[in-house]
Design a protein that fits this description.
Length: 165
Amino acid sequence: MINKRLLSLLLSLLVGVSFTSCSDDSEEELSATVGLIGNWTLQSADIRINDQSMEEFISELASLMNVPAETISEDFDMGGDFASGTTIEFREDGSYVLTESDDTSETGLWTATDKTVTISDADGDDPVTLEVRSLTSNKAILYMLEEESDGEMAMKMEFTLNFTK
């Protein structure tokens, strides 16, 4: 089951993100083990739940619960942890610093293979592994799929995060 901290961080990506276009698709792909080192700024996030956009999911859930969509949207607003302008610095020593748009920050640890990056809290607990879909010297696309089931209901959550350096 996805932990509350991760769900809070990832679901709040919706707040204030902006979309950008790619200008140079011909750059050489890099290995995550060295290519992620440096400062990255979140440009956009695409969050899909059960193959629906977040907006579609909230609308459908509100309809099923017979409540206004705004009521459910408020539950998914976790304080804007990952608004546009949020940065993450991957350091060579295996640590990272995440700075949110409101200047609050947290630190943790990271490791990588050629196509994955795993981040955890400062004690190495609560690891989260993301697939590196694309990585060049100035663009990174990270993806995570999380599936949960409690026996009665299944949920599939997909997160695609677009960063620039």
